[in-house]
Every structure is written in structure tokens, then in C-alpha cells.
Specification:
Two copies of one chain form a homodimer. By secondary structure, chain A is an alpha/beta fold. The first copy, chain A, contains eleven helices and seven strands. In chain A, helix 5 links the parallel strand 4 and strand 5.
């Protein structure tokens, strides 16, 4: 048995609370992904989820949001999943008086602000709610206990930064960069290997936790084959952050060594990489795996207010990590610089591209 | 179906965080109760919990701590329950390679500091942990999903103050008091009726949530028949608080009306009252119901350091409630006065008495 999640040192979660820079107030991009995927999830449930199998061993449907942060997106997504399952139930059963009960587990890192999450739970929710602290790179639930896993914009987070990026004697030393944009193959490979390890652990854990016939829906940033990473939306967001930090290092406001030793614990895989990892795991049937648009269009990001909102989005997601490494004094200046760079950026190359992967798996 | 917990307006939880006045640092009295009950719980599990019945329908044992607050007591209690169940498992089974997994739900009001609870979870725990926000005066879990309920020093909390205590035209108007110590029968009855309603809802909810053969262990303050409430430990703690508030009202530091409209949402039942409520519910076999000592002895409370610790204990538990009603300005003075009164109190009449109820129920 388990709870191995507790052995992995955890990264920092998103900004908590409901203040100006909180995730709760700056998660509209994830919100667009939730909206854009709503119909697709409904279809997957209608077509591929067999409730007769699930309810043969349980009167309760247990749903997990992996990497839920603090809301409100998670509540919208869960509501959509439950409504879709209820519609499927009515289609599969005649006796709707014996409706299943729903138990929803909201999972994120221990440092996630669960107090804010809990206090903003929808008052009239039709499910029993629980919070589960811990990394998804490990076991979180008892064997065979979960019927539906959902994850939106979380699986690109690594359990840790690849160690060789910090090794001055390694060809993977990531000097002058905070990610793998425009980096030598060794750096990209170090990231890719770390990511593959993490997803293997993730899939292995979920396979143990799910019941046969259970469904996993995962939405996360992906890199369309043939398009340079720096020209994707995620890539561009990180490159502008790197460039802001390098400017500040040049001016002596932070040290070069500080930038050298900072690396974003994130990786954006291709469809092919993910396909290979799921097949290697072997416990799941792949019902769907396709590149989609994140639901944010070039016309939207072209407005100044949207630009500002995107900067706030990056700040909500990364501020804690940046403060831990660089200290809190530089944060305001860093994001002012970042905002300026963002304004000058050629937005038309950006989010109309299909840079998200929508994956539906069924546990064999 | 459910989640009716969400319809009850919730009271404030204990002080969160780990600061000077936090529950985490001032819960030694509950700690004594945990220690004093450790053996009794082990015995109850060894003698009365039938794991063959429980594990015939589940590979996982699901345990709940109802009213867990933020730790550390809840972790000690849960550890003891799990170790006792594992011992029983070894006694009941030959094949110990198929050990059950444990999932533990930590429940308390939504205003409980779950962030502190989660960050202090034992790193090497042998169970999957989840937090469940919501009042125990309502449903918290799906039907037939829980094998073991535990609650220590929580069930004396009412879901709300009886309304008639605030009605100037009612014989239950509780003028000049904050509780029912030395109050007319109408006030005591209003409290008792509210308590009975709450426990009926509690037992009804737990009966639905538990599997047949599941066990509930509940420890809470109780009033030994024939002893005036004011002479019990809990009664005395509240009377000294009342007296401190009345002194401040006399000096005009708070208004009399403020004291009149403040009533503690707590009730301490007798064994007979609880027995009747469980029998009325009808879903449980009463395996044990006895008055016990809380594990704090007169000799311990007679020391000055213990006296100070008890004052801190009361502050950790009630500060939020008092601030909400009286404002934060008066709190330091109130507890200074309380501490002085406590020093002058005849401690020898106190906690050697059996003022806790230890209850073991089995779901029919």
C-alpha cells in the first residue's frame, strides 16, 4: 500500500486567497480551456462511459480533479462532468429513482490554498466534496476506488527540475536560460526524460486507483509537431519571462548565476510523446487523443486588457516559485517588464494554433 | 441525495495556523482525552469490530475523524485506530499479504484551517488522506461508504444557538448569562432540545453513511447525573468566562446587551440523554457507553503552568466566536481577567470527576 505522494518533495502551488494576484481571480485562460472542452467531455461521457459497468460494484461515482487549484474553474468542470454523467445515466437506465451519489475529490499540491477552495465550494452542489493534498506524481487514492479522473492544465508540471540542468560539467547545463526554448538538444532531452518519468508514475498510479471501465479526461498544453516551441503560446509566455529576467541580470538587479540556476519545472509534450507513454503503460484504451485550440483566439489576446490579464495569469501561477528563488523585492519590476514585452509581442502568431492536447482514456 | 451540510450556516472553527493562540499549540486537553481513550479504543476494535464483514464488500477501510480541528491530536488518534485495526486484521486473518488500504477523511467546519492540517500530515503515514469541510449536523459522505467514525470533544457543539434565548418575550431569554449555568429550567430545556435535534440529525446522517458492521467511537464532555453543571470542569471553564464578561459589562467596557445576546453554542448532555437519543435512532447497537475521566487530574490543573495552558486552550477554542460578537479590542483584557479568575478557582473540585462520555456504537 501506499500514499507514496508524501515521499516526493513538493513544488509550490498557485497563488492562494482571492487577492489581486490570486489564481482565483486570474485563471481565465484555464477557464477558456474548461469552456472549450465542455462539449468534448460531454460527448466522451455519452459515447464511451459505461455506467452499467461502473455501478455494478458501487452506488457512488467518485470523481477526481487532479491539480484543481482553488476554483472557480474546477467547480464548473465538475458540474459539467456530473451533468453529463446524469444524462448518460438517464439514457442507460429506466429507473431514475436510484440515481447514483457523487463524491468529488479536489486534488492539488499540499501548498495549494485549500481553505479558499473549500470556502468557495458551490453552496447547492449535488455532490459530497473532499480535498486531497499531494502530488499527482504518486498514489493519492485506494486501489480501484475512482471512476473518473479529470485534469485541466496541470500535467505539464514536472515533479522536479531535471538535476543535470544545474550541473556545470554536464552538456545539459542550462546556462542563461530558464527553460528549453532555443536550448541545445541535451537540455530538451533532460526535460523530456523527466517528463516521461513523471507521466509514467502518474499513469501507473491512476491505473491502480481506477476501476475497470473508469474514464480519465486530461487537457494540457501540447506542442504541435513541426512548430518551434517558442512560437506556441506557452513557449512565448515563458520566453518573455526569460528575456525579462536576463535584462534584469544584465543590469545587475539579479545575478547571472541566479538566472542560470532557475529552471521552470514544466514541459510541453507532443501528441506522439504522450501516445507512446500511454501505450507503454498498457492499462488504458485510448478513446481520444487530439490537438485542440485552448479557446483563446488571436483577436482576444490582441486587446490591451487581455494582454494585462495574461500577465496576471502568469503571475498568479508562477509568483511563489519566482519569489522562492529570486526573493520578493524584484517581483513587481519583473512583471512590469514582462507586461511591456508582452505588449510588443506579435500576438497574431499565437493562440489560434492547436496547442492543447485533449485525451480520453478508459481503464481496461 | 445529499450534501445537506451545506444548507446549515456554520459556526466558526478553532483558531487556525500555528501561532501562540492556535488550536495546534493549545489542544493539550484534547490530547489527554486522546491518550486516555487510546486503550479503550483498541479494546473496542479488538472485541467488537468484525473485519470479515467490513472487508467482504470493500478492499479499503474508510475512517473519519468528525470535528478533527488542525492536529496534532487527530493524527495520534487516527494512528491508534489504524494500528488497532491492523492488529485485529492479523488476529482475524491468516493471509496478511492482502492487507486492506486505509483512507482517512479529516472533517471539520469549512472555516477550519485545513491548510495547516494538510501541511502537518505525518509524512510517513500509512493511509490516503482527505479533508472534508462541512458541519457534522448533516450528510458528509455517500451512502454506505464509511467503516469507522471517530469523534473526540466535538459533539457538544450545537449547530446553532437556540433562538428563544435571544427573545426578550420568551421565558427562555438568557439575560445576564452566556450559557445555562445557574439558569432557569426554560433556558436549560432550550439548550437540551437544540442538542437533541442536532444529535438526531448527526446519528441519522452517520447511519446512512456507515456500512453495516461499521463502528463509531465518540468521546465528548458529559454531565455526571446529580452533579451541578457548574461544578464540572467544562461548566467551570464557561462560568469563569461568563463572570469575566459580566465584570467588563459592569465597568462599561462592553454593553450588557452584548452579553445578553451572546450564548455559547454548546451543551453537555448526561449519559441518560445520549442513551435515549441513540435508542430513538434505532440504527446502532450500543456496545459501550460509560462516563470516564478526561485524563486531566486535579493535581495537574493545580499548577500555575497548567492553569495558564487551560486558559490558552479556551482562547484557542473560542477566540473567533468571541471576536465576532464583541470585537477584537476586548480579547486580551478578557483573557487576562479570565486567567486571574482561573488562578483563584478551587481546582480540587474539578477534573478528577468522570465528565466525559465514551461511546462505542456498531451500525446494525
Amino acid at each position: 500500500m501506499g500514499a507514496s505522494a508524501t515521499t516526493t518533495p513538493e513544488l509550490d502551488a498557485m497563488n492562494g486567497g482571492d487577492g489581486r494576484f490570486s489564481y482565483a481571480k486570474n485563471s481565465f485562460l484555464q477557464g477558456h480551456s474548461v469552456n472549450a472542452s465542455k462539449e468534448k467531455i460531454g460527448e466522451a461521457i455519452a459515447e464511451k462511459l459505461d455506467l452499467k459497468i461502473l455501478l455494478s460494484t458501487s452506488k457512488t461515482i467518485r470523481i477526481v480533479d487532479v491539480g484543481c487549484s482553488v476554483g472557480p474553474n474546477t467547480f464548473l468542470a465538475i458540474q459539467n462532468i456530473i451533468e453529463s454523467i446524469e444524462r448518460k445515466y438517464q439514457a442507460q437506465y429506466l429507473n431514475i429513482n436510484q440515481k447514483p451519489e457523487f463524491q468529488v475529490f479536489f486534488n492539488d499540491l499540499t501548498s495549494n490554498d485549500f481553505n479558499t477552495l473549500f470556502s468557495s465550494l458551490p453552496p447547492n452542489r449535488q455532490y459530497f466534496a473532499a480535498g486531497v493534498p499531494g502530488s499527482f506524481h504518486g498514489r493519492l487514492f485506494p486501489e480501484g476506488s475512482i471512476h473518473f479522473f479529470y485534469s485541466c492544465i496541470a500535467l505539464h508540471i514536472l515533479s522536479k527540475v531535471p538535476e543535470e540542468l544545474l550541473d556545470m560539467n554536464s552538456p545539459s547545463w542550462n546556462k542563461g536560460r530558464i527553460h528549453y526554448i532555443n536550448a541545445p538538444d541535451e537540455v530538451v532531452n533532460a526535460y523530456a526524460t523527466q517528463y516521461a518519468k513523471g507521466i509514467e508514475i502518474f499513469l501507473d498510479a491512476r491505473a491502480k486507483e481506477m476501476v475497470s471501465g473508469g474514464m480519465a479526461v486530461m487537457i494540457f498544453p501540447a506542442n504541435p509537431t513541426g512548430i518551434p516551441y517558442s512560437q506556441t503560446f506557452t513557449g512565448a509566455m515563458f520566453e518573455l519571462l526569460e528575456s525579462s529576467l536576463l535584462d534584469m541580470a544584465k543590469e545587475g538587479k539579479i545575478s547571472e548565476a541566479q538566472v542560470d540556476s532557475f529552471n521552470l519545472p514544466m514541459y510541453v509534450p507532443s501528441l506522439e510523446e504522450m501516445m507512446e507513454l500511454v501505450q507503454k503503460n498498457g492499462c488504458f484504451d485510448i478513446e481520444k487523443m487530439e490537438l485542440t485550440s485552448p479557446g483563446v483566439h488571436a483577436s482576444m489576446t490582441n486587446t490591451s486588457s487581455m494582454g494585462k490579464a495574461i500577465v496576471m495569469h502568469v503571475r498568479a501561477g508562477m509568483e511563489r516559485m519566482l519569489i522562492q528563488h529570486f526573493g520578493s523585492e524584484i517581483i513587481d519590476e519583473l512583471f512590469n517588464r514582462y507586461a511591456k514585452k508582452f505588449e510588443e509581442f506579435p500576438h497574431h502568431v499565437l493562440p489560434s494554433k492547436k496547442v492543447q492536447l485533449f485525451v480520453v482514456l478508459i481503464r481496461k
